[in-house]
Amino acid sequence: MKQTNRKIIIRKEKEYTIGFLLDFITVGEQVKVVAEIQGGKMIVANIENVRFQRGTNNQTKTIKKATEEENTISHNQIMDIVSTVTGLKAEDIKGKGKTDPYVHARFAFAALCVKYRFNECISEVGRFLNRDHSTIIAGQKKHEIYMNYDDYSEMFNRCDAEIKAII
């Protein structure tokens, strides 16, 4: 049974790429998967490195620095950690505040969700923060830039260390 356009996660070392199943092929005695990934590129991967996701989507993305276990920490636990480290209330972080402390806390929360809840789509993170998925994607790009600044990176690293301590 051919299941084209089925969303899959392809693992390469510690990086996970989300793509879409195009076909199965047999090479010798091995079953391989042909998939479309970000940028319309096609790759062939061993079946052992592929996991199927529920639902389909018309976008692909790469999620980096994923952990080996799936969703070992909840949104609320991550939010509690970010709230504690930043000294801000969770409802204020989810709110509409546009000053640096609130925005930085939201960026850190989203980045931590992507890092530790890797099989979850960006839309789920957005829903938790009452934001659109595109806002989360833009926040991810800003997060990468802000990691070059000591104050932000120190705050993010403290949150990251707290999460590593409980999982």
Task: Provide mean pLDDT, rounded.
Answer: 80
Nearest-angstrom radius of gyration?
18 Å
> In CATH, what is the class of the largest domain?
Mainly Alpha
The N- to C-terminal Cα distance equals 38 Å
Q: What is the structural class?
A: alpha+beta
Shape: elongated
Number of helices: 6
What is the succession of H and E elements?
EEEEEEHHHHHH
CATH architecture of the largest domain: Orthogonal Bundle
* Percent of residues in beta strands: 15-25%
Helix content: 40-55%
Q: Might you state the CATH topology name of the largest domain? A: Chromosomal Replication Initiator Protein Dnaa, Chain: A
Taking pLDDT < 50 over at least 5 consecutive residues as the criterion, the unreliable ranges are 55-69
Question: Main beta sheet, described?
Answer: 6 strands, antiparallel
Number of strands: 6
Question: What's the CATH H-level homologous superfamily of the largest domain?
Answer: DnaA protein, C-terminal DNA-binding domain
Q: State the domain count.
A: 2
